[in-house]
Amino acid sequence: LSSSTWFTSQLQLQLKDNRIFVDRNPKRFAIILDYLRTKKVFLNGTVSLAEIQDEAKFFGLKELQDAKQE
Fold it and tell me: Is the model's pTM score more than 0.85?
């Protein structure tokens, strides 16, 4: 998570119940979570690379913003 400026800022907040509410598209967010775990992008056909790059911009994931489709 340290590669994401958004997550880093959220984790620095003092949260009483140790939860972070993420109000984003769940289909896109699932791919972002997989990326954070594996550093690989698995597109499932319902989300485009451009949409994931847009989410990456929101979350501050610079390397994912610049990703190219293989």
Answer: no
